[in-house]
Specification:
The complex is a heterotrimer of chains A (263), B (378) and C (259).
Chain A lengths: L41 E6 L4 E6 L2 E3 L2 E4 L5 E4 L11 E7 L1 H22 L5 H14 L7 E8 L5 E6 L5 E4 L1 E5 L2 H11 L26 H18 L6 E8 L2 E8 L4
Antiparallel strand pairs in A: 1-2, 1-10, 2-11, 3-4, 5-6, 6-7, 7-8, 8-9, 11-12
Helix pairs in contact in A: 3-4
Chain B lengths: L1 E5 L13 E4 L2 E2 L2 E2 L25 E3 L9 E4 L4 E4 L27 H12 L3 E6 L2 E9 L14 E4 L2 E7 L1 H22 L5 H14 L11 E9 L29 E7 L5 E3 L2 E4 L3 H10 L9 H16 L7 E9 L9 E3 L2 H31 L1
Antiparallel strand pairs in B: 1-4, 1-5, 2-7, 3-4, 5-6, 6-7, 8-9, 8-15, 9-16, 10-11, 11-12, 12-13, 13-14, 16-17
Chain C lengths: L12 H4 L20 E3 L2 E6 L2 E7 L2 E3 L2 E4 L5 E4 L3 E8 H20 L8 H17 L6 E8 L5 E7 L4 E3 L2 E3 L2 H13 L3 H4 L4 H18 L6 E8 L2 E9 L20
Antiparallel strand pairs in C: 1-4, 1-7, 2-3, 2-11, 3-12, 4-5, 6-7, 7-8, 8-9, 9-10, 12-13
Helix pairs in contact in C: 4-6
The chains are: A alpha+beta (263), B alpha+beta (378), C alpha+beta (259).
Amino acid sequence: MAMFSQNPLMNGPNYSFSQTPSTAAAGNKEHSFYPYTDNGGSTLAISGNDFTIIAGDTRSTSGYNINTRYSPKVFKIGGTTSSQDDATLVLSVVGFAADGAALKERLDAIVKMYRYQHGKPMSVKACAQRLSTILYGKRFFPYYVTAILGGLDEEGKGAVYSYDPVGSYEREQCRAAGAAASLIMPFLDNQVNYKNQYIPGSGEGHALQEREKIPLPRNEVEDLVKDAFDSAVERHIEVGDGLQMLIITKSGIEEKYLPLKKD
Amino acid sequence: MVFVQVSPRLRFPSKFPKLSFSVKQFEANHVTGADLYFVASGIQFGHANQTRASGAWRAQAPDGCQTIGFKPSHHSITSTVVPNTFSTSIGTGYDLTNSVFSPDGRNFQVEYAVKAVENGGTSIGIRCKDGVVLAVEKVISSKLLKAGANKRIATVDRHIGAVSSGLVPDGRHFVSRARDEASSWRSTYKTPITVKDLASRMGGYLQAYTLYSSVRPFGITGIVAGWDSELELPVDGQVGSGPKIGSGGKVEGKKYGGPGLFMIEPSGQYWGYYGAATGKGRQTAKAELEKLDLAAGKLSLQDGVKEAARIIYVAHADNKDKEFELEMTWISSLDGPTKGRHEEVPKDILEEAEKLAKKHLDDDDDEEETKEDDKMEE
Amino acid sequence: MNHLPQAWGRPRDDVYGAYDHAYLQNGPKQHTQSPAVTGTSVLALKFKDGVVIAADNLASYGSLARFTDVKRLRKFADTTVVGFGGDVSDMQYLDRLLNSLDIEEAYGGSSHTLNAQNLHTYLSKVMYKRRSEFNPLWNQLLVAGLDGEGKPFLASADLLGTTFSSPSLATGFGAHLAQPLLRKVAFDEEAAAKLTVEEAVEAIKESMKVLFYRDARSLDKYSIAVVTKDGIDLKQDEKLEKQSWAFADQIRGYGTQIN
């Protein structure tokens, strides 16, 4: 009750001047401004033998609203021209779009500077470590994004690095992120890494033999990406409108755009 | 006994009275002599050419002494001695530092700054009834400079321009400060600065550079020109239209806003002008400006542009051996061609004005020739 | 009777409730935690040669219609119109910021001016910086004009620094009510590129009307601007035309009617 609110010891009516001990902790002022939002959408990256595909839908949302049907989440990084046509790396960001854009611009500037200073493009491995450092640098006010970095490694093999918002990262065969990550990732486990696929009649229990893993060809991976997004669109309201796909090969980065359902 | 400094660069004007005598005692870097006073600058050596020496010498005089230049030979110094009764105060030491008055109440550093202005390309401003024109004679110092580049007239705020004669970098700093003043005025008062207020701020700024020994005065005379809006302006960022009767405080029949033209000198002195001129050709330009009867307030901006171009060409006539470019900007009234903004005079109008200016000069030459011819005939 | 002299004549908590000392506490530096005087929706639609943008002339103080003559469309350098939703004082701050930017641009002397795309990039960085300082400018902005190639440009930036671009955009209530109507006439860029200025203006005016019907923080006086390569045509004292409240008596579920 309000009348005993200021000093329980007095057990009587309280007045408009403070009677509580002045040493009482005032407590931290609560900020009602929340600096983040979720702009929805999903991204997906799969590495192949000599290519990497990074894809993302192009829908941007605020709650149940669609902000726009075309807002790319996948970016070429570290090219020397405004069109980025000589870039060798690709970054996808999903989560809070403003942080995503800020992160993309920072990484792009750093990778460009590396290229100008060393006279060669940054390796995907070096860039992956650098991106982690950037993210961890804002450990206590994070970029609220799930990033995926893709390129070709020193041997020319496809490379995908995935991150959490504060910079923890690992190299993976494939990764889905964003709103529909939980829908797409199990599909990828099954279709890329052949999880839970066994050779028929190979035995029972532990004797079961896993289906042999083979590197997928590019056209099959592209089809997998399309199927993954078509399915995600059906089941997740924040995913849709368009599919942007960047395919990194030794001859450059190819960009594809395909329509997705706009409902 | 006085310390002697080597100074190989001395070159003195020869108009000062000279006395010469020699000093027998000269030991290394020290000179003794009861009647000898020593120099910094301003005086030519008496017989410098009669003595063989590797370079000119310069001596720092003790406080209160006058100074001379002198040259050493093997065992003597032939030199010019300036008596204490010398008629000018230059060379007394009072001109060596800023902020110090001479006994007759002058600040020599400021006067030297004025000399720098007098060597600069001519700048003028004309205050017309419906706008202001600025023009400058940009002397071409190298054929390698791109024509039309390296502008000398600057925009200070939307409605104000500035130009200067003298040391160009000082002029740039002048403009930079003027922009800061205009911008800070806006952020304080949420309204554009008037030309008069800007001139006042800049006058104060330049004056401060006469007060300290750690700085030197500006080597420029600046001209600021602008148009103060004749209409009631919305406050910057204003959101509604306010009461229909306006903000009030207006005097019936009084005219608000209009053209402004001010000239600010190295001393910080500034006046408002109908026509302002500074730089090398200022005398000629002022004479021409006076002929225009600007105080009558009849001259239109369009005519002002033509007059400005003509005056720059006339003023340049005394400096004919050097090529120049004419740069002109203007600020019109709100219903005029620039809508109260400071802009470059459009190329076609500028070229037309230059054509007329050249024609005018040619006509003048012809006139003189005919006069001479007449005389010949007589 | 209370024996504490300092309590005499003071409002009693059991009568007036506990006294709120919050205003006395000089805690950490305070930033805007919520907007005060606000503007509602801004609408904009691209068409063949440019962009149409509109916002009403109301600034509300909570539910009070506080200022009814507030111009929320701001011109920049005769090339761009910025429409402001949200806090009005932050709008004024941004307007002055853009003003000083325009003056600084004129220092250069060249006739090049910032286009709408440049301005949007600038504004979004200002907004993102301020949100990152926990001191946001409480606005959602629409930037309408032309891009570097002279094509129609329309994009949004908000208090979080989020940005996006679309053939039609609407802020606040308009995102719910007007955006569907605008998307009917300009579903995608191709459709917008076929619209005439008349069609675009008509669609915007119709949407403004619907907003006035349903948004309690809206007004029937509004500003509308058409931005093309020929410049800005800004009208600031428009009235909604041909209103029809015939739908009103069909509404059920509010008020006192029985059936």
